[in-house]
Specification:
It is built from 3 helices and no strands. The protein is mostly helical. It starts with a helix and ends in an 11-residue tail after the last helix.
């Protein structure tokens, strides 16, 4: 009987030793592959970011191609660009340009203060 109990303990001990060796090998294997998995994840994120940038650049390229085509073939577009950006007009035309809105007084008190510019509130 004594031999049977001591044999049982050794079988139990061998099973636990096998389990611990298996866990150690698994941990070693995982420690080898974790950096590779992280690198793959980083590369996938970078790929997604680059694909978004590529789509934006493609859209920009199409828009510029369309503008180039209009500049080559559409006289009305060229005229509009010349009027807006180059301040050109047809002979005899008077061109009116308005400055963007600046400070606009809200109340009569502020209108009265506009006569004295030192007391005007500062513009943002």
């Amino acid at each position: 009987m004594i031999k049977l109990k001591s044999l049982n303990i050794w079988i139990y001990f061998v099973q636990w030793t096998k389990f611990l060796i298996f866990c150690g090998l698994l941990a070693l294997l995982l420690s080898f592959f974790i950096p590779i998995i992280r690198k793959i994840d980083q590369l996938e994120k970078k790929k997604e970011l680059l694909s978004k940038e590529y789509a934006a650049e493609e859209l920009k390229n199409k828009e510029l191609s369309r503008k180039l085509d209009l500049l080559k073939h559409d006289p009305a577009f060229i005229e509009r660009i010349a009027r807006d950006r180059l301040n050109m007009g047809k002979p005899g035309e008077i061109i009116f340009r308005f400055d963007p809105y600046g400070y606009v007084p809200i109340s009569r008190k502020e209108i009265k203060q506009t006569k004295n510019p030192k007391s005007l509130p500062k513009q943002p």
